[in-house]
């Protein structure tokens, strides 16, 4: 869309939209800095990296690699997504009542854009719930092994999953 010069109601898509329309921080850097609160919140599940360290065969190699990939993931999934969306639609033409992702898909002509985004959000929520269940069960298992939780929480299935009876 950006390379082909996709036309929107706000003009033509271009990387120039990133510095036109007031530049990078037209209303100051405060909003940008405050947005990191949400980014950090999205990565609060990073404790799972430490929790799974005891379950991996080579934690000295796997854990640093996973931790070092976090900044790359933030750049790709947050900053990259923002750069692409703002290249297609300038920041001042995005409707705050709608998802910018829905606006991009709808602009391409995908009628089911809202449904696609809702599916992605629900899948992400289910994944987050699954991670929560995993981390909680492993924590209870560890506590049980140390004698700080009931012995029944020490039972695992043949696939090393906590057996909750």
UniProtKB/TrEMBL annotation:
Transmembrane intervals: 29-49, 70-89, 101-129
InterPro entries given in the database record: AA-permease/SLC12A_dom (IPR004841)
Main location: membrane
Parts forming coiled coils: none
Superkingdom, natural source: Bacteria
Pfam families named in the record: AA_permease
Residue ranges of every copy of the Amino acid permease/ SLC12A domain listed in the record: 3-160
GO biological process: amino acid transport; transmembrane transport
Annotated localization: Cell membrane
One cellular component (GO) term of this entry: plasma membrane
Keyword flag Transmembrane: yes
Membrane topology (UniProt): Multi-pass membrane protein
UniProt KW keywords: Amino-acid transport, Cell membrane, Membrane, Transmembrane, Transmembrane helix, Transport
PANTHER family referenced in this protein's UniProt entry, alphabetically: D-SERINE_D-ALANINE_GLYCINE TRANSPORTER, GABA PERMEASE
Entry protein name: D-serine/D-alanine/glycine transporter
Native organism: Clostridium luticellarii
Gene from which this protein is expressed: cycA_2
